[in-house]
Amino acid sequence: MGRPPCCDKVGIKKGPWTPEEDIILVSYIQEHGPGNWRSVPTNTGLMRCSKSCRLRWTNYLRPGIKRGNFTPHEEGMIVHLQSLLGNRWAAIASYLPQRTDNDIKNYWNTHLKKKIKKLQTDAQDSYYNMASSDTISPPFNDPTSKGYSSTEAPLPSSFHSSSLYASSAENISRLLEGWMRSSSPNSYHENSQQESPLIAANNYSSSQENGDDQGAGCALINNQCGREQLESLLVFENIGACWEKPVGEPLADQLIAAADHEHNQGEVKQKQEQYPLCFLEKWLLDEATSGHVEGLMEFSPEQCCSNPMF
DNA sequence: AATATTCCCAACCGCCCCAAT
DNA sequence: AATTGGGGCGGTTGGGAATAT
User: In this protein, which residues make up the domain named Myb-like (predicted)?
Assistant: First the structure.
């Protein structure tokens, strides 16, 4: 059953990558572009398996990767998208183009999961404290609300920023930025042959029905232009007034509020009211909208306000 | 200062999908 | 139709760094 893992071959090196290996890999990709990973170890002499080369590139060396210091908005998006998509990190990462799925997954597992559970616990505590004299419904674990799992974990009381990186890999990435910008769009993202955002959105809804969790939204923002446009769409301050306030997402609201409280206490309420993820939610969940994705990329705030789709 | 414990993240592992044959 | 193998994804782990004792 199953093939032996490609990295089980004799002579294949494991463990941390050295700066020298990074330079070899980056140089090769700079010349040939990402893809055809099987040929990378052969052609470079790297004693790494193809999979390891791909992961090193996509998770660490690829230009444009932002490391550490997740902003409150990024945290909010991750929480919200996780509630919508589950642990489909690649799909979630497609909405945060500067973050890798691995980075998001790690951040979720080490920070956000704990924060959410803490918020749940705190909220439940306060609810049960009130319950003796009140009859309101509990705010969490309500099947009619957002579907945050009760198994999700608790939160520390404060946000602590991730460590700053000043790695050699980052420097290598910076060297590559110029090259990447000047090369063709197809060479920038390794999955340049992937389906269009329109098709991806359609496939997402159908794959949900089929129980297929593979690659749902991965291609949604696959070209750089689309990514940048969606990024600009997600600048909450610029578009907040356009979106109706999302309902039934107490955890995301609380998380954003908590994070904002630390970042900028005065803006908490404003940010909550501006939080636009209802758009993503609707877009993801409403098959009918999938045919308008490309148009959405070009929406101005004024247009989105008047668009009957919302 | 030394040791123990906890935290974090880069990297690996195993499974799955799908195109090629 | 069945097989093969490359590539992608999510889950997990190992080791170094940070923190606590």
Answer: 9-61, 62-112
